[in-house]
Design goal:
With 75 residues, the chain is mainly α. It has one domain. It is 85% helix and 0% strand. It is built from 2 helices and no strands. The longest helix has 58 residues.
Length: 75
Amino acid sequence: MGSFASFADFISMGGYAVYVWSAYAFFALVLLVNIWQPLMARKKYFRQQLKREQVQAERARAQQEHEEMRNGNAT
């Protein structure tokens, strides 16, 4: 641990432990948010894309049924 005489000295950081460790905690939090947020955005994007494709397929199926009914009634 370099210049620290013991592990307790390292943890206390020469009396500045609150500032040092809170800075590390804030850094870790920001790092985790920067990893988590894009993953959640990607998941949301794919969920929305799947929903769009399902709606499109349903509309195409309904349109096809409508056309078949129209053609069936016309003859």
